[in-house]
Write a structure and sequence with these properties.
MmRce1-like; transmembrane; CAAX amino terminal protease family protein; single chain; Rce1/LyrA-like_dom; mainly alpha; endopeptidase activity
Amino acid sequence: MVTVYNLQYTSMFEYLKSVTYEVSNLAIIFPIYGIIQSFCEEFAWRGYLLPRMCKIMKPDKAAVLNGFLWGVWQLPIIMILYMKVAENPLNGAVMLLIMSTSVGVIQSYLLYKTESLWCPVLFNLSLNIINIYNPASIFVNVAAGNSISHVLPGVVGMAGLVIAGMLCYRESKRVYVN
């Protein structure tokens, strides 16, 4: 009912059409696309580049640098997509680099411990789903990209990811990578 009110549907048919579209995206299209996208991204960053970086530096340092470079790689497209809706694009860029570095360390640690690329792939997919379908944009009529729509995954989630990243960094020092 909140969706009907917020989006001002004029008929039950429009409402059902919208719900069907969203459910199909959530249940079918996004997971398939998301797994392919996450796998390709993780294959390149954690499956290909990270092991090569570990040959020239320690695994903990390689994980941090890999995460930071991953953030730099994402920065142009994020800035293009959110330039018009972000109140302060520079703050968004800094937050992206902090979060990408933290997430990169976590994903690297997952790869080190499980020796499987699927664990970082599923972690990446989970974060993408949280970013697209976050609580504020689902339950409140807030435009995607608005700073309010990213409060839960942004502020609270980022703090948790930074702490988890620091713990994984500490544990990565104990990992042997050949």
